[in-house]
Amino acid sequence: MELLDRIKEGRNKLNLSQDALASELHVSRQAISKWETGQSYPDLEKLIALSDIFGVTLDELVRSDKRLEKNLLMMEEVSLEGYGRMKHTDLERLFTGRIEDESILCTDSYKSYIKFAKNLDVELQQIKRGKHKEGIYHIQHINAFHSKLKEWMYGFHSVATKYLANYMYWFKWLQFFNTEKDTVKTKHLLVQSHTYHSDTKLKDFKIREVIYI
């Protein structure tokens, strides 16, 4: 059985539409359609995600599709074994000390987030498989932001890690004024680049010392 048949079969077993599977993988419905008709192949990252969703190993997913196996080995120059989604320990290593107090973590249904949120004492709001929204929580907001960020960063080819924060601020600034005319953007750029900004939270006001002038 080729990959295109395995994707169709796995999707139908879970009663997922192409739109629902696309939402789960953060790709377009057209991408799913191309995978299921053999017009294109998912990349390694999406193959891993597909194997998690269908509850099979990566080897089981791509087995017997010789052309795909050959392409993956040539393109990635790595073994197909030993890959998987991030564990809660990996998440903790990356985000410990970087999440604000009283934050709400909105994620997909991947189980590692449960242990991660519990260990860091963070409120967790998970979106059920096949959905992208739960009340006011909408996982596509961050996915859309991430997609735009990757597209913008791609033009630089590579970015040194020590300058990454600068690029993030630059991108955030562009997004904030993305509907403005160029003349207005230029004005804001000149003003804000010569203005001192302070980040003050409400809880800081409660404990600040009184200053008499």
Please sum up the structure shown.
The chain is mainly alpha-helical. It has twelve helices and four strands; from the N terminus they run H-H-H-H-H-H-H-E-H-E-E-E-H-H-H-H.
List the helices and strands and how they pair.
Blueprint: H1 3-13, H2 18-25, H3 29-36, H4 44-54, H5 58-62, H6 66-76, H7 88-95, E1 104-107, H8 112-119, E2 123-126, E3 133-134, E4 137-138, H9 140-154, H10 164-176, H11 182-192, H12 202-207
Parallel strand pairs: 1-2
Antiparallel strand pairs: 3-4
Helix pairs in contact: 2-3, 7-8
Describe the fold and architecture.
With 213 residues, the protein is mainly alpha-helical. The protein has 3 domains: 3-76, 434 Repressor (Amino-terminal Domain), CATH 1.10.260; 88-138, no CATH class; 158-213, no CATH class. It is built from 12 helices and 4 strands; from the N terminus they run H-H-H-H-H-H-H-E-H-E-E-E-H-H-H-H. The chain has helices at 3-13, 18-25, 29-36, 44-54, 58-62, 66-76, 88-95, 112-119, 140-154, 164-176, 182-192, 202-207; strands spanning 104-107, 123-126, 133-134, 137-138. Strand 1, helix 8 and strand 2 form a beta-alpha-beta unit.
